Each structure stands twice: as C-alpha cells, then as structure tokens.
Amino acid sequence: MSDDIYREIILDHYRNPRNKGKLENADVTVHDSNPLCGDEIDIHLKVNDGVISDVKFEGKGCAISQASASMLTELVMGKDLNVVKDLKKEDILENIGLTNLGPARIKCALLSLKVLKVGMIKYYSDNDPNSAEQIKNESSLY
Amino acid sequence: MQRSIVNSYELRNDFPIFKKKINGKDLVYLDNASTTQKPYSVINSITDFYSNYNSNIHRAVYQLAEEATELYEQSRKKIANFINVRPEEIIFTRNTTESINLIAHSWARSNLKKDDVITITEIEHHSNIVPWQILCQEIGTRLEYVGIDESGFLDVEYLIELISSRKVKLVSISHMSNVLGTIVPIERIIKTAHQYDIPVIVDGAQSVPHMPVDAKNLDCDFLVFSAHKMLGPTGVGVLYAKKELLEKMKPFMGGGDMIKEVFKFHTNYNEVPYKFEAGTPNIADVVGFGAAIEYLEKIGMENIRKHEISLTEYALESMQSLKYITIYGPTDSNFRGGVISFNIADIHPHDLATIMNDHGIAIRSGHHCAQVLMQRLDVPATSRASFYIYNTKEEIDKFVNAIKEAGRIFKI
Lengths: 142, 412
Description:
A: 7 helices, B: alpha/beta
C-alpha cells in the first residue's frame, strides 16, 4: 500500500534530489519520457578511463520516477562502466526499495535506468560497438 | 414519466461492476470523462444479439439477417431522436476520434485550400488537434487557436473576431472541456460562424452524455461523440452531419456496404448514411448503444445534468476547504460539467492516483489527452475526478478523505 511506497527516503529524494542539474562538457546527454505519465528524465554522463566520473539528471514527474533517478545517480557515480552496463531492473527496484510496484508504476521507477542504458549505448557506439550491441540486446526493459 | 431526481443509490444496482471490490473496498469510479460503466441492460442486449440475432446486416434476405438489420437501424433511429436529427444523418464510426478524422478526410480535404484557417481552441482533446495538423501539413491550411482566461473560460470575443476576419473556413470546437469542465457557448459561436458561411464541428464527447443536446436546434453542421462515454459499449462512435453536407462529401473508406454498383474501374456509391459505413460494422455494439440511449432517456438528460450540478457543487465546496489545493476551471457549476481537475501541493497526480487506489477510488491522472491545455495551464499533469449518474455524495466524501490521506503520507 501507499505507506510502503512513499517512505521517508523516497520523499526525501523527491524533494531534495541528488546530482540534479546540467553537466557542462558531458560526454553523453540523453532524454526520454514516459508518454503515459509525462514523466521526463535527462541524464548527463562524464566518462573517464571507463569510469563514470560525473553524472547529473534533470527531470520532472512523479515521486517514484524522480526519486528513482536521484538514487540511480548515486548508485552509478564513480562506477566502472562494465559494472553499470550489467545493471538489471531488479537491481534498481531493490535500490529504491520498491519491489511490489504494479505494471503502470514500475515504468516510472525504471525510466531513469532506461535513459541511462540509452546513454551508454550512445557512448559505446562511438568507441566500442560490441558493448553497445550487448546492452541493446540485454535491455529488455520495455 | 421521467423520474424527477436521479436516485444514484438505486441506479447502482443496475451496474454489475459495483459489486467488485478494489483492495477490499467498494469501487468508487470517478473517471467517467474517460469512459463510463455499463448497466445490465446494455450488457444483456449485446449477449441477446449474439445469442438470438447474430448475422450480417444489409445483405441477406433470410429472417435472421432482417432482424439484425432492423435492430441495427433501430439504434440509429434512437440516436437520431436523442439529438433531434434524421436517422440518415447518423453515421456510425469507431469513436469520436474516427468521426473527426472522417470529417477531415471527407469534407475538409476537398473543401479547404492552402492558407484557409481552421480554428480550434486551447481546450481541445488531441482528437480535435492532430487530424487538423495532419491536414495542414498535407494541403497547407493553417491552424489557429482561441485561448482561455484564468478561470478556464474561452475567449469567445477573439473567436468572433477571427471568424469575421474571413480567413477562417472551419471552426472545430469542444462543447465541454474534458479537463476543466468548461461549457462553451456554442450557440453564439455557431450563429456567428453561419453569418460568414463557416461550418462548425461540435465535439460533443463530453457534453452529449451529460446534458440535453439538440443538434437541430443548435444548427451545428457536425456533431461527434462516443457511445462508451454514455453507458454504451466501446468501439462505437457517432458522426452527425447535415444531410446536404453528407451528400456532397467523398467516401471515407472504400469497400463493402458503401457501394451501389461496382464495375472493373469505377463504383457508384451507396446513399447516405451507408456511403460512410464501409465493411461490416460493429453491429452488436451499435445495438448495445441503443440500449444505453434507452436507459439514459428513462432517467432524462435534464435530470442527469441537475444531478451532476449538485455533485459538482458539493465536491467543489468540500475540495476548496483543503490545504494546498489548486482547482482548475470555472467555479460556478452552471458553466461547467462534472469534471474537476486539480493539484495538491507538490504531490504528482500519479502519486495521488496510486494513493486513491488504496481506497478503491479510480481517478485519472496525467495530461488527459490535452497537452496543449496543460502547456497553457503550465502544469505537466493534473488529477481529475469526473462524475456520472451512479456517483453519490458519500463517494465524494471518500474521495476528499483520500486527498487528506495523501497529504498525510506526503507530509504536507
């Protein structure tokens, strides 16, 4: 029920999002939206030596989509791309502590991961087409 | 004899869906602007059709086919009578969207030319925006919008000014906003447009189900609406058009039933309305729609309107006392239908709808297929509650309490 969804930590990330804003000189910027809800997320990535050295997001939408994006930036900050590449939707739902969402709301929770994966495909397509292909094939989110 | 008031508590027994529990609670269905629930009489008429009359119409000469044709055509008569026009002026489509696309394709494409202006408004549903954008891209017509003021009222003076500029060749306008509930003074708009020989399309998707609409008296050139928003089945829409317009219009789709004679390289088309109903139509659901019309007429459209005014007033009064609420649209229920859009503090409508669902309450959240209006209101989304004959004041109390509950969960 809703009390289990809108816990303190979700409301905190919704109202005080981490790593929110634009990133100057980003290596990759990706935008996507959820046409059902109108949730929108932009993710900016900076990559150095195969590591996400900086990440920021912009967006508007429901508490679940925005908190999930905020928590995702914390999760991937400073991480090796090879690790981020393998993130699964279950990892995200666990990360935000929402494993019981219905089919309509799960899309809100996973929008930021979708955007991040598209960003990585974009990044790899210039440097490493094999990895780009691998993420495309494994990203059966939608 | 019409009942003088709508007894929602009694009516609810006619709707099987209200036996269903959501999260252990009674279903409080407040998404009627989107679609409405169906009474037994509608559901049974569809079952009855398939059980006792199923056959194709307008073709075979055996008894079953004659009976099926008769039922289908009876529905057309009921609907024509409901909006006070002639049966041959009623075309069955899939929905309001298809009806508008039919007009764009069969009337506008051959009657408008480059630089002609099509006037619509900021309150339109996507179904009354996108078909015109497509047409403009194809034949070079231009789209102009009439705006709304802070209370959600249409700038009718500007519309009149536009009409008299003589560039405008078509006005297509919603009778009632599906977001704000605003009722548009279409009588005046139609009168003025006709002084300049401009045809008017009235999108009645939100008005025809909720108030008396007399198309003949309004003198609109086209009126479009959907069965499923007025107790009928999904998959049936209506296009009313004046017969003289229909007779001059080109067919929408080609195929069976819309023809008189087919030769190798040309075809003589059937008479109206059949010219616009190509292929086997949605026979059973059209029959079901006839049952819905009968149900509504038994209650009386005046009574339905009164009932909704009373519910809307009650809801607006209860909601206005809530902290941090923004209600969009007119506050006087005489100028609005039973559709209330709102936002609460920084709670996103989708989060509010999730919390409402805990209480068995179904409300809509999002842009309501009216993104142009959302841009005008400068909000990404709103929550929306919309009422119909089976809703009660007790349900509105539950709805208002659930808003308070959302406030508690979100700590506002």
